[in-house]
Design brief:
The protein is mainly α. It has a domain at about 265-525. It has helices at about 5-25, 30-55, 80-100, 110-125, 130-150, 160-185, 200-215, 225-230, 235-240, 245-255, 260-265, 265-285, 290-315, 315-345, 355-360, 360-375, 380-390, 395-420, 425-430, 435-440, 445-460, 470-480, 490-510, 510-515, 535-595, 605-625, and strands at about 60, 70-75. Helix 4 (about 110-125) runs antiparallel to helix 5 and helix 9 (about 235-240) packs antiparallel against helix 14. The longest helix is centred in the last third of the chain and has 64 residues, at about 535-595. The protein is elongated. The termini are far apart. The model is unreliable at about 425-430 and about 435-440 (pLDDT under 50).
Length: about 625
């Protein structure tokens, strides 16, 4: 361990890990203690995160010591300092919300155990400096997300949703293993900082693998559909998963390996376009949703798209600011959505009309969060989006990004139109028949939920200070991004005006945006279908046909050819080689027999043979001469 606060960094990851495992092993016996334990660990995590952000420690544990960078090493620099504080604060807030949202009779020890493990995995992800540490955290995050999304496994569809999310992200995760192999081959090291120095093609392979894994984890195109399925999880899971943890992990990783993207220009361009297209397409998808959680899910992918764009464009400060601001805004909105679901028994927009009027505290916090999501100045996402756009080169990228930003105001306005409207008593009474009884719950809003929503709303407002040059410059200094482009006053004014105009039009003519509900956008433009069993089975059948008709047929033909060649070789061996050997042996035997005939043992015959031999030699000598 090195640096001030090394023990704090180890405790930051180990404390939620050990507490989570203990709760899981204790089972239902620990249900009563699970909530308080989760809150205490969360609060301790905030204090530890602040300590390591200041101390910038390094912690290493032996793992693959024979390989440089093979140990499990964690370290805190400017980027990870910002993220550990964000993750710890949001996780603590969501844990408090979960205490009042998860029913008392539920398996609370199992829920909070997985929640703590999930948080520990994200904290390890943002501090990992070696690929073994990153892979360990990445895998634990994926496994615990499956358990949390499918927490109510006995309700039809819940476990399938967790499986969809797990398998989709798992497919992308394979890219990290490819990148690890390429790093070892190209640099001889497994350190993340060494990836940009890999030899030749290995650098391209490493970049491709990490980009694939990051896009899958952050639900970017074409992987976005799993985020829709993940909405089957409990509201606290959605609040944590969509704000500061799993969906943000891919964007963070791309910011972390930004030197590698710069060294491979194609990877930087591909990353930037993947992010901006996701922001545009999923922003449009959000406009077409009838379900509030589905709208928020699509908007999450769209907002993280700006982070991915920032990584591709080299705007580290803008991307980090977008991650932090989005975490506060989206966590607050999911807390509000979960609160309304519990109190009103529905997550359908039609049943949430006037929700902000019924519950003014949560309604006020949600209104502020929606305004921030829309990009209204002087709130947080207005400032951070402009930081991202300031680093974007190329007119095409900038135009698409501005269109995506305008859509943010449209779908945020759609939420405001509903929750600020006059309550519809019939819709409210009807509730949502698709929800299970556990989701319908009680009809009151716990003060703790209102308090958490208010705290997150204050953060969404306060982070708007990033638009001020002294604050922005201080942030760039922390991130060591002093040379990056900054937005001008005119650019800030233009983007803020665009957001206000689109938001005003949406509030004035909500039917214009509501047209999207009757379009393919409502069904996530087929993105969820890509993850259904049908296309997977179709691909499997095609692969089976290729295997049976092509590969197997070629193997069988090769085997038959080898067998025929072996028969021919056997015949040649039996009739030619063996025949020649037998003939030589017979000749040698005959020669031996002929050589034995003169060996009679009679002296006079030997003299006669000698005389005959000399006579023959004499004749030969005379002939030769």
């Amino acid at each position: 361990m090195t640096g001030d606060g090394a023990a704090a960094l180890a405790a930051l990851v180990l404390l939620p890990s050990v507490a989570g495992i203990a709760l899981l092993l204790s089972g239902r016996r620990a249900d009563r203690l699970a909530g308080p334990v989760g809150v205490l660990v969360g609060m301790a995590g905030v204090a530890l995160a602040a300590a390591v952000a200041i101390g910038r420690p390094v912690v290493s544990a032996p793992f693959l010591g024979i390989v440089p960078g093979g140990d499990l090493e964690l370290a805190v620099d400017g980027l990870s300092a910002v993220l550990v504080v964000t993750v710890a604060v949001v996780a603590a807030a969501v844990t408090v919300f979960a205490v009042v949202d998860v029913p008392a009779g539920a398996a609370r020890a199992r829920f909070f155990g997985y929640l703590l493990l999930f948080t520990a995995a994200m904290l390890m992800t943002v501090t990992a400096t070696t690929l073994p540490a990153l892979l360990l955290a990445w895998e634990v995050m994926g496994a615990t997300s499956y358990a949390l999304i499918g927490y109510r496994w006995d309700v039809p569809g819940k476990l399938a949703a967790g499986t969809t999310a797990f398998l989709t992200t798992r497919a992308g995760d394979l890219g990290l293993y490819v990148a690890a192999g390429a790093a070892l081959a190209g640099t001889g090291s497994l350190r993340l900082d060494d990836l940009a120095t890999a030899d030749g093609g290995w650098r391209d392979v490493a970049a491709a693998g990490i980009v694939l894994a990051a896009l899958g984890k952050s639900a970017q195109l074409p992987f976005s559909g799993w985020l829709s399925a993940a909405m089957a999880g409990p509201s606290p899971v959605s609040a944590l998963l969509h704000s500061a943890t799993m969906v943000a992990a891919g964007g963070y990783l791309l910011l972390r390996i930004q030197p590698l993207l710069t060294a491979t220009s194609w990877a930087a361009n591909a990353t930037a376009w993947a992010g901006v297209l996701t922001a545009l397409v999923l922003g449009a998808v959000a406009c077409g949703q009838r379900d509030l959680k589905q709208l928020l899910a699509a908007s999450t992918a769209a907002q993280i798209g700006f982070v991915v764009l920032a990584a591709g464009a080299g705007a580290t400060a803008g991307g980090a600011g977008q991650l932090v601001a989005h975490a506060a805004v989206k966590a607050g909105l999911f807390v509000a959505a979960g609160t309304w679901l519990t109190s009103l028994g529905t997550k359908q927009l039609i049943g949430l009309r006037g929700a902000a009027r019924r519950h003014p505290g949560v309604g006020a916090a949600a209104t502020v969060a929606c305004l921030a999501l829309a990009g209204v100045p002087p709130l947080s996402l207005w400032a951070t989006k402009d930081e991202v756009l300031a680093g974007v080169d190329g007119a095409a990228l900038r135009i698409v990004a501005l269109a995506a930003a305008a859509l943010s105001a449209a779908y945020a306005g759609r939420i405001l139109v509903v929750v600020l409207g006059r309550p519809d008593s019939d819709a409210a009474a009807g509730g949502d028949a698709s929800l299970d009884l556990e989701e319908r719950g009680t009809r009151r809003v716990p003060p703790a939920a209102t308090g958490i929503a208010a705290v997150l709303a204050v953060a969404a407002v306060g982070l708007g200070a990033l638009a001020l040059h002294p604050v922005a410059d201080a942030g760039r200094a922390v991130l060591d991004a002093g040379g990056e482009s900054t937005p001008t006053a005119l650019e800030l004014f233009a983007s803020g005006s665009l957001a206000l105009v689109v938001l005003a039009l949406t509030l004035w003519r909500p039917g214009v945006v509501a047209i999207a509900v009757r379009s393919p956008l409502a069904g996530w433009v087929g993105l969820r279908g890509l993850l259904s069993p049908r296309p997977v089975l179709a691909v499997a059948r095609a692969a089976a046909a290729v295997d049976d008709r092509g590969i197997d047929r070629a193997v069988r033909a090769l085997a038959a050819g080898v067998r025929r060649l072996a028969v021919s070789a056997s015949r040649a061996d039996a009739h030619v080689v063996d025949g020649a050997v037998r003939a030589i042996a017979a000749g040698a035997r005959s020669a031996g027999a002929a050589a034995r005939r003169p060996q009679t043992g009679l002296l006079h015959q030997y003299y006669a043979q000698a005389a005959a031999g000399l006579a023959v030699l004499l004749v030969v000598l005379l002939v030769v001469r």
